[in-house]
Write a sequence for this structure.
């Protein structure tokens, strides 16, 4: 397959051609040569015990009597519905575990920082600390920030293993949504408990009612979105600073020819924060120049670690998940520093062909062939300096004949946290979502869409993200993004204010130009999807758009998803009342009954439901139709007369 058929991104295409010339294998080539298992892909393969694996092909292309269907079971008697549900719930549990273990690590570091223990971290955003304390029911009046932070840290850690009650952040949701969760008995009790119970229930011989399995899957997903992920985001903001708009650059062209290039890749932002500090150390910069790197040290990022340091420091994005091998292929990277999640085991193999050193840093994750430097959270800057020093010493090993940095990069504006959007819309003293709601009500903005998720070599890289988002903003839908999806659209220039005039519909463009924002807002890493939950909740609480998340003219999508984390995210959005569409493939297609329940049954219970559509333009139409249906239900489908208020009319408003 030609490189331009694998990606729409010029830098990626260029590096794929170079990889082929250098004799280096990549994920793109492996995906082309390795066909996915059709039975496993539909969720119809069970390997929960040694009596299997049991493969139950779907009956969609052959006639089958009811009796034959009933006889189509695993060795233990499990039906295809049970098997598909078990597999789906295990994906939710895996994704929740990934996000929430990240959150636990942040919580422990936060508590150490609050206590003033040997650490380079501190409390930066005291205003957000007070807000979280109030949400947790912690007293703040007359108390020092240090004492409040200690209580918040201890309460956060308790959320992972508490023995009574439910998660504290559930009280942030609209009251109607809280009542739905209570009635359905899906309120998460503690984060770890829900993951463990999901694994237990999906073990052979335990839970064999697919609707009952999905009840636990929903509870587990909510423990992610309104628990582990939300805790990670909030504590990181308090400790590292809540993001505000910042300019940056994206794509492999951010690498520099005369500079020590260090790439940070993964999902936990604590070490990357220290790498930012270490890369600005005058002593280390002088050492780099002494080694021949006249430009000093250049830090760039891949995946969600990149999104974190971009939002807080403007560190450039080298690319999304599928570009991690290609950064090494450029021949210009001295060190790639990885922690957890979405890291390819192939990196050390690719690095063998160049001078790049792959460095693992998490106690949870090592890779054969990589150097391991353990990140001690009590002395993080020490580890960061060692990593930077090792990278500097690699610079003289660079083989100039193998260096080819793609000359492709794009400007972007990132850092649109929930708080920032609130401020931009209302100012310092009147921060409010009211202008957003009013412009949805008057029709300038049709609705809001969250387009998130991964990159997947089973589809053309970045293509589905690009087509979907362009179609949405053209139809006056404001788009908010996180993770690799955000990088895909940033590379196309959709995250600059100028993009509103060039690509958005007239109503959305008018609002964006008035406020000074892009039509596509970068909200952070994939763990920061909780910011989207908070933004949607703020829209409900502002009024005029219903009294629950399921009333809002909003929709979500993950057009190129690949990770279990995406399934967990999608499930907590659906359970929160949001219509959510996935592309690429769908993991329950082997069971029509289970798929129908997810696509229709969940909607009857939670007001949000799943959908599957691999064609991005059809996906856009599904989302726009859903948004329009919500507008109609709210009575916003009729044109409203624009009224110029005179002074008397204004006085009447103020009196009310």
């Amino acid at each position: 397959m030609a490189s331009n058929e694998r990606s729409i991104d010029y830098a990626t295409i260029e590096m794929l051609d170079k990889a082929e010339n250098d004799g280096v294998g990549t994920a793109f080539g492996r995906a082309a040569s390795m066909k996915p298992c059709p039975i496993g892909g539909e969720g119809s393969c069970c390997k929960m015990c040694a009596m299997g694996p049991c493969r139950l092909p779907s009956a969609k292309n052959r006639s089958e009597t009811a009796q034959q269907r009933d006889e189509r079971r695993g060795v233990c008697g499990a039906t295809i519905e049970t098997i598909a549900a078990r597999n789906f719930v295990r994906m939710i549990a895996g994704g929740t575990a990934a996000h929430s273990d990240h959150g636990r690590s942040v919580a422990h570091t936060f508590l150490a920082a609050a206590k003033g223990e040997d650490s380079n971290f501190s409390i930066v955003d005291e205003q957000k600390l007070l807000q979280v304390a109030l949400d947790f029911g912690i007293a703040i009046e007359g108390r020092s920030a240090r004492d409040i932070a200690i209580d918040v840290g201890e309460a956060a850690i308790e959320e992972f293993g508490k023995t009574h009650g439910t998660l504290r952040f559930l009280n942030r949701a609209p009251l109607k949504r809280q009542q739905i969760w209570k009635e359905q008995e899906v309120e998460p009790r503690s984060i770890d408990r829900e993951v463990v119970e999901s694994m237990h229930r999906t073990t052979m011989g335990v839970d064999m009612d697919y609707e009952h399995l999905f009840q636990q899957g929903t509870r587990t997903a909510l423990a992610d979105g309104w628990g582990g992920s939300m805790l990670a985001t909030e504590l990181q903001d308090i400790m590292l600073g809540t993001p505000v708009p910042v300019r940056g650059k994206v794509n492999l062209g951010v690498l520099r020819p005369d500079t020590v290039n260090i790439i940070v890749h993964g999902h936990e932002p604590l070490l990357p924060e220290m790498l930012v500090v270490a890369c600005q150390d005058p002593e280390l910069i002088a050492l780099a120049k002494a080694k021949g790197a006249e430009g000093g040290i250049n830090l760039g990022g891949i995946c969600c670690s990149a999104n974190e340091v971009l939002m807080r420091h403007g560190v450039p994005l080298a690319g999304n998940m599928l570009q991690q091998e290609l950064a090494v292929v450029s021949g210009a990277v001295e060190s790639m520093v990885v922690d957890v999640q979405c890291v390819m085991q192939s990196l050390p193999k690719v690095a063998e062909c160049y001078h790049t050193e792959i460095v693992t840093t998490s106690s949870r994750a090592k890779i054969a062939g990589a150097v391991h430097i353990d990140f001690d959270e009590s002395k993080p800057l020490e580890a960061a300096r060692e990593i930077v020093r090792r990278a500097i010493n690699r610079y003289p090993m660079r083989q100039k004949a193998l260096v080819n940095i793609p000359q492709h990069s794009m400007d972007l504006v990132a850092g649109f946290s929930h708080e920032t959007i609130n401020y931009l819309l209302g100012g310092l003293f009147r921060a409010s979502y009211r202008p957003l709601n009013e412009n949805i009500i008057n029709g300038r903005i049709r609705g809001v869409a969250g387009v998130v998720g991964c990159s997947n070599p089973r589809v053309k890289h970045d293509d589905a993200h690009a087509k979907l988002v362009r179609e949405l903003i053209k139809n006056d839908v404001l788009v908010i993004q996180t993770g690799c999806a955000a990088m895909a659209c940033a590379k196309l220039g959709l995250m600059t204010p100028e993009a509103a005039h060039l690509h958005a519909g007239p109503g959305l463009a008018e609002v964006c130009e008035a406020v000074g924002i892009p039509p596509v807002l970068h909200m952070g890493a994939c763990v920061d999807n909780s910011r989207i939950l908070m933004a949607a909740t703020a829209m409900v609480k502002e009024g005029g758009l219903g009294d629950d998340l399921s009333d809002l003219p909003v929709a979500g999508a993950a057009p190129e998803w690949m990770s279990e984390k995406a399934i967990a995210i999608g499930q907590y959005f659906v359970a929160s009342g949001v219509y959510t569409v996935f592309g690429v493939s769908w993991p329950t297609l082997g069971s029509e009954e289970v798929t129908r329940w997810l696509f229709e049954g969940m909607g009857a219970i939670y007001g949000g439901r799943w959908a599957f559509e691999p064609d991005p333009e059809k996906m856009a139409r599904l989302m726009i139709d859903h948004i329009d249906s919500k507008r109609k239900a709210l009575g916003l489908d009729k044109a409203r007369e624009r009224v110029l208020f005179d002074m008397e009319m204004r006085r009447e408003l103020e009196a009310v």
Q: What stands out?
A: Residues 200 and 206 are 7 Å apart (CA to CA).
